[in-house]
Design brief:
The structure is a homodimer of 329-residue chains. Chain A has two domains: 132 residues, ATPase, nucleotide binding domain (Nucleotidyltransferase, domain 5, 2-Layer Sandwich); 172 residues, 2-Layer Sandwich (Nucleotidyltransferase, domain 5), CATH 3.30.420.40. Chain A is 36% helix and 21% strand. In chain A, strand 9 and strand 10 form a beta hairpin. Chains A and B meet through strand 10 and helix 7 of A and strand 10 and helix 7 of B.
Chain lengths: 329, 329
């Protein structure tokens, strides 16, 4: 008997991750590829589809790829298109579901905001099991938020709800953001935002740091995490500031959405308490009395940071189950 | 034949409004009473119930009051209780539905956040007819927000979603708020927030104003509206600042919820474009490219500012219809 599989895809600003998963969420194979460096979005999609097909074939002919789901920044859920995502190399509307389906031999493909995919993954396979109201905050090249209210993902009118990274952190005179405005949260707590904070600290203090001998463009958030684990004071201070800013911003999101829990997902969360301790402390001082001691603030508990790809796989299974099963292997 | 009626109630920080309405939302009678000046919440609830009973009796014995719905600040929807509302004279949890039901002879009573009631009223009888994703912002003693996503009111885990007035407008060194923190939006754009802005303008400028001869505590937002209509420059500037701050804050709420429209309801909205022009202008400069020209920003279009009481009446009809109709007239 053919064993059905789906592909779950997470398209980040830097890296694209994908898994092949069965209907219980077991990962049979996985891979990554860079998101940048392709001549066009069409070329990127064709290479991604080829990688997934090859990975599927490597599992042997007993497996059949029946659907795919993709999480990406700024996805219009209804259209399956990426809509002018400031953190991706391509501009305008990108027909993500359409192209992937074409290059994957016509199987159904659905797409959603990466934060919504991660929220779905957390709800099905992680710490949000059984929860009806929670937020899933994704940190990386961008900063997103999956909103679950009454057990359902909140998509909004254009499928663009949860643009947490483009809420104002500094209203007046803040840092330039990739979206063209100033002061957005993303300019402070994204991966590049952390590098900017480190750079500002080098300007403001005399504190010694290994980063004083590196150019700005050569530093990324994972370097700051490594340096912090070695005790670099400016790296540690960068995590304290990032956690504090996030905690303050989360207090606002909580006042608006009244969630039971807020989960955090993505690169900088690998440093655990370096980020979460100042985040929790700032949340407690910033949140209203109803929430300051009553909202669960936790890292995503899906294995190996797989909330987004597994959520995307879960979307693919849902899409597959809604399709008329005629003439299918 | 008995004609069934429900009571719709809107409990504001200063005034309580109520209507008796039929199932089509026609108002047969209405009234107001002060919210403050009672010895206890129990006394307030008994007087409110008496007023409603007398109003109902004044319509003649052909009418029968079958249910009531109440909108109030900080209501826990599931419990029907007001939960430590900073803008009401009573503290702690107040059994709103329970007491009103008792004093109204045991008819079913439901309660929700006033902003949710107003959102429901706008959806049933106003500009949000047919909309699935919109926000209803209520301005008055407090500042609230009803969130409708996918056609449903977002209540949140504790029934407290939409605490828009307690999101940070100024993160550091902002105005004291009634909730005990600093910088909340409510400290800037509530009725008292407008008086505070006027007071700050008197401090910062030499501009003449009729308010320079009045004590702070003698001024309310409606005085500022009247003075603005007479051309008082500081009153006009107060509206410009209030509209601008609201527009900036609404841009953040829109990035989070991605609504089709945002409606505005409550006292200061009676001044129309004095508030809405700077609000729209600030929204256009603050909102992201997806939203700046694509979100409807309008005053509530329910007659005579009745979105909240009519929404509360609609809740009452819903509650009535869910009750087993045994032994009823």
């Amino acid at each position: 008997m053919m064993r059905k599989l789906v592909a779950g895809i997470d398209i980040g600003g830097t890296t694209t991750s994908y898994v092949l998963a069965d209907s219980e969420g077991n990962v049979l194979a996985d891979g990554t590829m860079p998101t940048c460096g392709f001549g066009s979005f069409d070329e990127y999609a064709s290479v991604l589809a080829l990688r997934i097909k090859e990975l599927s074939e490597s599992l042997g002919s007993v497996h059949s790829l029946v659907a795919a789901g993709a999480g990406a920044p700024s996805v219009d859920f209804a259209a399956g298109e990426i809509v002018s995502a400031p953190n991706l190399p391509w501009k305008g509307r990108l027909p993500l579901s359409g192209l992937l389906s074409e290059y994957l031999g016509g199987i159904p493909v659905c797409a959603d905001n990466d934060a919504n995919a991660a929220a779905l993954g957390e709800m099905m396979f992680g710490g949000a099991c059984g929860m009806k109201n929670f937020l899933m905050i994704t940190l990386g090249t961008g900063v997103g938020c999956g909103i679950v209210a009454g057990g359902e993902i909140v998509h909004g009118e254009r499928g663009m709800a949860g643009e947490f990274g483009h809420m104002a952190y500094e209203r007046h005179g803040g840092r330039q953001c990739g979206c063209g405005r100033k002061g957005c949260l993303e300019a402070y707590v994204s991966a590049k935002g952390m590098v900017r904070t480190l750079s500002a600290l080098m300007a403001e203090t005399h504190e010694d740091s290994e980063f004083r001998n590196l150019p700005f463009n050569a530093i990324d958030a994972s370097d700051i995490a490594s340096a912090a684990s070695r005790g670099d004071r400016l790296a540690l201070e960068t995590f304290r500031i990032t956690g504090r800013i996030l905690g303050e911003a989360v207090a606002d999101a909580v006042a608006f959405a009244d969630p039971q829990a807020v989960f955090f997902f993505g690169g900088p969360t690998a440093s655990g308490d370096l980020l979460m301790s100042p985040l929790r402390e700032a949340f407690r001082s910033s949140a209203g009395p109803l929430w300051k001691d009553n909202v669960i603030l936790e890292l995503s508990s899906v294995d190996a940071g797989r909330a987004a790809v597994l959520g995307a796989a879960a979307m693919a299974w849902k899409k597959h189950s809604m399709r008329p099963h005629i003439g299918e292997n």
